[in-house]
Structures are given as structure tokens and as C-alpha cells.
Amino acid sequence: MIVTIKRNSNPVQIERLTRWIKNLGLECHMSEGEKSTVIGLVGDTSKVDIDLLRSLEIVEAVTRIQEPYKNANRKFHPDDTIVDVKGVKFGGSHFQIIAGPCSIETEKQVIGIAEAVKAAGASVLRGGAFKPRTSPYAFQGLGLKGLEILKKASRETGLPIVTEIMSEKYIDAFADVDIIQIGARNMQNFDLLKAVGKLRKPILLKRGLANTIEEWLMSAEYIMSEGNNEIILCERGIRTFEPYTRNTLDLSAIPLLKEKTHLPIIVDPSHASGLSRLVKPLSLASVGVGADGLMIEVHNDPQHALCDGAQSLRPDQFADVVKAVDVMLPLVNKERDK
Ligand code: PEP
Ligand code: MN
What lines the ligand 1 site, CB under 6 Å? Predict the structure, then answer.
């Protein structure tokens, strides 16, 4: 249930109202936005006399909500959430481009790519140290050593970093990671979601391979229910019957999510298509549907990459994508930090 408070209401009366709600055994989630102040009532709202609530002087409207996700719901929080990563802002009118290799291979490789993508316009560096591979015989990532390399690349370039965590046991090792990625395969690893929910650090939550938008938002809700509201959603394609692409990019999810949630949403066109030549058109399409950013795999030598070479761009190709994105951004009233 959502209670919208009239503009310029007396804070004492608001406080009296929240106390009354709490005495009914419910939690109050306050959202004081630019447009309005709303109170989200979480818990068993059957005890609330909705007519009585509506009759209060400070109450503008009372709405019942059907969706099972509360904290992630835009009805609870009408303004866009801006996730601030060391001054790099996701959401609202901001547009960010995350780039880097699929996997961290060597220090020279990562630092070289980091410098190139930064020069081309990336604002965050990506790179996997712990890789979720379908085969146990495939390259599994450098693990903790890879994490150290990524941190060094961050120190040298000043770019914040994002990397995937696969197990709760590494939470402490991820202390200096700026954004922790929950990969598609772990989107419903509920213990992991709860564990990162206890952190006060941005989380990049990728959509599961075969998960609905509501399931995805419920995963965000797991993180938020533990108190961490800094979530960036990432659409990375879903499984369909189509074998020509690795996954099918669900572009309609972006404008739909903009209605349903206040959280920022970015697109990963690399994993969505699996084909480097589709990354540019899908990036532009993502801008067109209102995404808050992109995450693109870039490799200095895609043919010899240890993972996902076929979908990785060379730095010059990446720079070309950024230029094209910049042409489109004014059309959707967004700006890339420069
Ligand atoms: C990745 O971003 O490195 C990755 C493994 O992506 P996903 O979880 O979307 O497959
Ligand atoms: Mn990859």
C-alpha cells in the first residue's frame, strides 16, 4: 500500500501518521522525492482502515499495489534512483559505458585495454576474475590474482571497476571492488543476494538466462530487503528458440522496467548477441529504448581471447560505438559524463 502525502505537509503530522502505521505492526518506507513524498507500507496491510487513511488532512491518495516487489517498485519511489559509483552516476539523465575484457588474463592486457577504453569514453572498467563457465574444463578465470590485476588497472587509470562474485565466501576479498556483479547464472542464488544485500556497495544485477522481469525484480528485492538499495539492473539477453544469436536481447524489457522500477537499467549487447558485429546496432537500439548505459566486452586481440572472443570488440571498434552512441544520446535526453 502506498500513501501519497500532500505537498508542504507538517512534518509533525507525518511523524504522527508513521507512528500510527508502525503501531499496526507495519514498516514504513519513506521516499521524499522532488515530485512528492510517499510512504510505502510493508507488511500485512489488511489491518489498515483505508478509508480512515484517505480522510486524513495530510493524505493526498492511498493506492493498493499488486506487485510482490515493494522496495524496487516505482510506485513506492517515483523518482529515478541514481547509483553513484565514485562520482560515476547511473540513472536519471546520466549515461555510462562500462567496458573491458570478458576475463582478466594478464596485467599487460588489462591495463592496455583499460587505457584504451578510458580514452574512448568508458567510465567503468569490467573484467572477470571468477568466471562462470558451462564446462569445468574451460578457463575458470585467475581468481584472487585476477582481482589484484583489476584493482591495479583501476589505480593506474582512475576507472572504477566491476567484477563478478560467484560465492559468498569471497565477500571480504571484494571489499575494494566498486561494483559487485551478480551474473545471470546466480540471479536466483538467494543466499548470495542476501549476502550482497548486507553490503553498502553498488550491485550490478544481471538478468537470469530464463527469468521473467518480475523474477528479476524479486531478486533486486532480495538485495533491497537487506538494506542495500544501490542496484543497477543489466539486461543481457534471454534464452529463446533462436540459435543464430547466443541469446535474444529483450529490448522491450527496458521501457517496461522504466515503468515498473526506479532502479537504473543498462544493457550488455555482447552477451546478448554473442557476435561482435551486432554490438554496435544493439547498443544504438538500447540507447533508443531508454537504457541508462551499456556494458561492452573489449579485447586487444579477440581472436586469442581466453573467453568470449567472438563477441569482443577491438578498442578501435569500441571507440566507433561510443561515437555513434554520442550522436544518439541527445535524442533521449541523456548525457555521457566526459
Ligand atoms: C559476464 O558479464 O562476464 C558474464 C559472465 O555475463 P552473464 O552472467 O550475463 O552471462
Ligand atoms: Mn563474457
Answer: 102, 128, 132, 164, 183-185, 206, 236, 271
Q: What amino acid occupies position 128?
A: G
Listed residue (63, 50, 144) closest to 104, CA to CA = 144
For residue 338, pLDDT over 80 is answered with no
Distance of CA 56 to the CA centre of its chain: 38
Atom of ligand 1 nearest to the CA of 183: 8
CA distances to 74, 149, 338 from 111, in Å: 39, 8, 20
Residue 297 CA: which ligand is closest?
A: 2
CB 57 within 8 A of CB 69: no
**Which tens digits make up the pLDDT trace of 244-263?**
999 999 999 999 999 999 99
Pull the grid cell for residue 190: 538467494
Nearest to 216 by CA among 261, 153, 171: 261
